[in-house]
């Protein structure tokens, strides 16, 4: 059973897992959530701007939005993170100090905004054109109709896709470690990797993976739940109409219903 002992020692060393648990909770999990949530919020704001530009009647807005989307969707995430994290490091030091933490958030936000912009654009375009025409018939401007009627409906339709994008951001946050985060800024992957090097086995990385699953798996099921709700809707039985049976009985007894003449 040497193979069993090898696998157990390499991946399931519970002592090594217990030793790294406080760091994963206090440092890794906290920083992963901060990076992911901050990138998502900024990505949603930028993504909405890109989406509105992408559906604008003006080509001067549509073309830059298309270029932006193609650029950040076409590049690998790690390449974008390295280009921004290292290319703007000197400028970042004068604003944020020596920490590359903010640049990692900015890079993830730009990547996320390209995908979220497409999600919003698809949701907005799925709203029937009659909504805009009805708003214009009521005297509303195009901007007001989009802001008050069309965009809210489009956002509601793409909520499952937005949660899916947040899951992707949580996983991509592990790539920020390439920028060389400080000890107190390490996310789950970097904490697990450092502990794995010190302990000589991969159990701390397995533990880090468990934390990622704790975040992503419930969100995945939540996406499926909301997706089913939005697709099928809540089906409720129609309430019984008071006196319906009496009406049916009277109709059956009526001479007109029976076809007889009075």
From TrEMBL:
This protein's membrane topology, according to the annotation, is: Multi-pass membrane protein
What protein family is recorded? Belongs to the binding-protein-dependent transport system permease family. HisMQ subfamily.
Q: What name is this protein filed under?
A: Amino acid ABC transporter permease
Coiled coil residues, start to end: none
Instruction: Report the locations given in the UniProt record.
Output: Cell membrane
Highest taxon of the source?
Bacteria
Tell me the keywords, alphabetical order.
Answer: Amino-acid transport, Cell membrane, Membrane, Transmembrane, Transmembrane helix, Transport
ABC transmembrane type-1 domain residues: 29-223
- Record InterPro entries: AA_ABC_transptr_permease_3TM, ArtM/GltK/GlnP/TcyL/YhdX-like, MetI-like, MetI-like_sf
Q: Where are the transmembrane segments?
A: 24-50, 71-89, 101-120, 166-184, 204-226
């Amino acid at each position: 059973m040497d193979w069993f002992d090898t696998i157990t020692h390499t991946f399931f060393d519970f002592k090594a897992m217990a030793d790294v648990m406080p760091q994963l909770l206090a440092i890794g999990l906290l920083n992963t959530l901060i990076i992911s949530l901050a990138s998502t919020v900024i990505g949603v704001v930028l993504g909405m701007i890109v989406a509105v530009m992408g559906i604008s009647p003006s080509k001067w807005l549509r073309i830059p939005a298309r270029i932006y989307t193609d650029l950040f969707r076409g590049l690998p995430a790690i390449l974008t993170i390295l280009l921004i994290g290292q290319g703007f490091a000197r400028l970042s030091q004068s604003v944020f100090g020596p920490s590359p933490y903010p640049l990692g958030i900015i890079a993830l936000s730009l990547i996320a905004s390209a995908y979220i912009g497409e999600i919003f654009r698809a949701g907005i375009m799925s709203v029937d054109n009659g909504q805009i025409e009805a708003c214009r018939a009521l005297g509303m401007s195009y901007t007001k109709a989009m802001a008050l009627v069309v965009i809210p409906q489009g956002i509601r339709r793409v909520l499952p896709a937005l949660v899916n994008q947040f899951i992707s951001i949580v996983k991509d946050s592990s790539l920020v470690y390439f920028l060389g985060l400080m000890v107190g800024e390490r996310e789950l992957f970097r904490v697990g990797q450092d502990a794995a090097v010190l302990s000589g086995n991969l159990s701390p990385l397995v533990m880090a993976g468990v934390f990622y699953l704790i975040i992503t798996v419930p969100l995945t099921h939540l996406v499926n739940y909301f997706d089913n709700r939005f697709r099928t809707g809540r089906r409720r039985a129609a309430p019984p109409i008071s006196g319906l049976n009496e009406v049916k009985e009277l109709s059956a007894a009526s001479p007109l219903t029976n076809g007889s003449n009075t």
